[in-house]
Amino acid sequence: MGLEILFIGLNQIGASIGVALADQLLEMRRVGYDSDGQQARRVRQAGAVDHLVSHPRKASEVADVVILSTPTVDVRDYLEMLGAKLKPNAVVLDTSPLKVPSAAWAEELLPEDRHYIGITPIVGPAALLTEVPDHQVPCADLFHGGLMAIVIPPKTPELAVTVALRFAAILGATPFFIDPVEHDAVIATVEGLPSLICAALMNMAAEAKNWRELQRMAGSLFANATQFNPSQTPKIQGGTLFLNQEIVLTRIDALLEELQRLRALMAAEDSKALIDYLTKATTTRDAWLTIRQHGDWASQEFQRVKPVEKPGFLSNLFGIKPRRPKERK
């Protein structure tokens, strides 16, 4: 019997992992479920999964690995539904945005011999600034050259950790370990706050008396500054923000302080100070982007995973034989 991998949620993250797995010489079956049936069929046609199910409950009973790629607001429901139905030693890899609430739910709802690990795959340099026509389209090398943040709850066995590390290797991403609180604080700054800034700028402009003229004259800079995450509805964004409420509020306060500082520069009519402020921001962003695009992350700080040199590296963890390459005529 081959390795059973269940994908719950077939967004771009989950589907891209599925496509990346297709290149592995491994006897496996990739089973997928998404509440959006149309999206599930698109992903199936793209080769991200082998089979689709109308409900994940039955497939979960035989799954060795569950890839959970849903909004954080849905994680508890799925963990509660799966619970003891998961086979012993099954590993749940959770790619949802927040890890503090998800890890707490896993501790509450999963038996001790079913294992939860939070993972956040980070897009590689090539995909960072690439405009993807459809955010629902899977990409096998989406995370190649990037990183994978891994949150490991206490008492997690080595086997489960190894599964997460091997999936990082499959994606071509460098893994690093992070505390769940620190993880969610980062998400509040790099994902939560930008979405709120987009909303605030858009609503401020729309409520201005000269909104008609603004619509006519706004260009790509305004369009990019008000671009929401296309993969998340306002309901999903709002739910995620509230689950991370305490940290998000501290980030809003920090942003307000920065805006007050900027306002003071403008009010003082100190053009040099304003230019210095803008120069610092531009220089800092350029430096970050250069490092980000080259993948230069001071790699000695991260635990690197050796490249996969032979098939069966993952199946061995579950006592499963690797798939033999098909004979060519």
What features would you describe in this structure?
The structure is a single chain. This protein is of the alpha/beta class. The chain has two domains: 3-178 and 301-318, Rossmann fold (3-Layer(aba) Sandwich), CATH 3.40.50.720; 182-294, 6-phosphogluconate dehydrogenase C-terminal fold. The protein is 49% helix and 12% strand. The chain has helices spanning 12-21, 37-45, 56-60, 72-82, 100-109, 125-128, 158-171, 180-206, 211-217, 220-225, 234-243, 245-267, 271-294; strands at residues 3-8, 28-33, 51-52, 65-68, 91-94, 115-122, 147-151, 174-177. An eight-stranded mixed beta sheet has the order 3-2-1-4-5-6-7-8, sandwiched between helices. Helix 2 (37-45) links the parallel strand 2 (28-33) and strand 3 (51-52). Helix 4 packs parallel to helix 5 (100-109) and helix 8 crosses helix 12 (245-267). Mean pLDDT is 88; it is low at 305-311 and 325-329.
Furnish the topology, listing elements before pairings.
Blueprint: E1 3-8, H1 12-21, E2 28-33, H2 37-45, E3 51-52, H3 56-60, E4 65-68, H4 72-82, E5 91-94, H5 100-109, E6 115-122, H6 125-128, E7 147-151, H7 158-171, E8 174-177, H8 180-206, H9 211-217, H10 220-225, H11 234-243, H12 245-267, H13 271-294
Parallel strand pairs: 1-2, 1-4, 2-3, 4-5, 5-6, 7-8
Antiparallel strand pairs: 6-7
Helix pairs in contact: 4-5, 8-12
